Write a sequence for this structure.
């Protein structure tokens, strides 16, 4: 995706009266379960709600005329490379993305799907329900399941093209979440060798390539690229409950899977492993360049908006901690201790 061209002059952008209009056109290719929700939080408050496309779901892209998409300065979503099919060749949106350790991401995806299946089975597609049951049987000792929903998904999301143009208009044969089913089928069936080459090219074209396990560095490069100061405190959004409680938590260790299961996950994410290594190398290279150059211009108002919301969230978290501490001490007997120094001085 290119960043050197502006949208066509015939399309008038949203006129939000803040400095977010001066931030670059941006597309955050959010790969599921890579920790991108916190970056969406940053981008929403930097760009402003009116300049950010309002959904992360791929089928929402075709629910408005193609021309209207260019009114948004920032896209954040699970669109893969499908967004390109709705934009002109000279659209000018710079791309960023984040990759995660492939086995960690896979186990996180599995655990998320299992939680969803156990609590809201009506929200899980029948095919995914079958996949969850087959996975549980595999963990218990059965044969390996069909691994298409886990097979090198990061590589496939970054490398597979998907044309959304046939889904435009009221007469389109497929609408709503059915588009996601078609997209998933296309991603799963694509030739892996060609997909690896395309995904590698996509990473090299991204303005920022991040790594979940190096979130602080990733966020720093993103903030520098769009021209805002990084928040002092990052929220923990959309994290597994265990990860929120313990920063050292890993899904690989906590899942308790037997070695054969972890070996299976390693085998079906080999291409993802190579792409993850490339992402780390690109992050190293760009962090070295970041440290070597002088700091650029920072837009004041988006930074202020980001700092305001992070400070507000931090204040709410602090107040909650204080209330919990007070409640925990209510009813506890006072610990006897020595008299205070001032009391001793009065007695003497």
């Amino acid at each position: 995706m290119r960043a050197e061209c502006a949208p066509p002059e015939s399309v008038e952008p949203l006129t939000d009266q803040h400095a977010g209009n001066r931030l670059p056109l941006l597309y955050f290719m959010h790969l599921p379960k890579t920790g991108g929700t916190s970056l969406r939080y940053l981008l929403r408050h930097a760009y402003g709600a009116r300049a950010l496309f309002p959904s992360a779901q791929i089928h929402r892209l075709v629910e408005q005329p193609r021309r209207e998409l260019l009114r948004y300065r920032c896209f954040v979503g699970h669109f893969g490379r499908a967004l390109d099919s709705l934009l002109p060749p000279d659209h000018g949106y710079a791309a960023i993305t984040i990759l995660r350790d492939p086995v960690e991401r896979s186990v996180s995806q599995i655990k998320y799907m299992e939680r969803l299946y156990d609590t809201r089975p009506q929200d899980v597609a029948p095919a995914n329900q079958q996949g969850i049951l087959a996975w549980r049987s595999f963990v218990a000792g059965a044969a390996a399941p069909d691994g298409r929903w886990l097979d090198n998904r990061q590589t496939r999301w970054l490398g597979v093209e998907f044309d959304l143009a046939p889904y435009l208009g009221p007469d389109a044969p497929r609408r709503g979440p059915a588009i996601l089913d078609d997209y998933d089928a296309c991603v799963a069936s694509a030739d892996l060798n060609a997909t690896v080459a395309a995904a590698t090219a996509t990473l090299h074209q991204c303005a920022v390539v991040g790594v979940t396990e190096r979130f602080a560095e990733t966020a720093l490069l993103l903030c520098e690229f769009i021209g805002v100061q990084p928040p002092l405190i990052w929220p923990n959004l959309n994290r597994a409950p265990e990860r929120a409680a313990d920063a050292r938590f890993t899904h690989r260790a906590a899942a308790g899977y037997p070695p054969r299961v972890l070996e299976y996950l390693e085998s079906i994410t080999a291409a993802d492993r190579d792409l993850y290594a490339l992402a780390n190398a690109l992050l190293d290279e760009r962090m070295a360049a970041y440290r070597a150059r002088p700091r650029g211009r920072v837009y004041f108002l988006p930074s202020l908006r980001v700092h305001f919301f992070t400070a507000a969230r931090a204040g709410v978290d602090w107040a909650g901690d204080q209330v919990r501490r007070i409640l925990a001490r209510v009813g506890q007997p006072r610990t006897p201790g020595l008299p205070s120094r001032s009391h001793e001085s009065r007695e003497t």
The first helix runs from residue 37 to 47. The two ends are 81 Å apart (CA to CA).
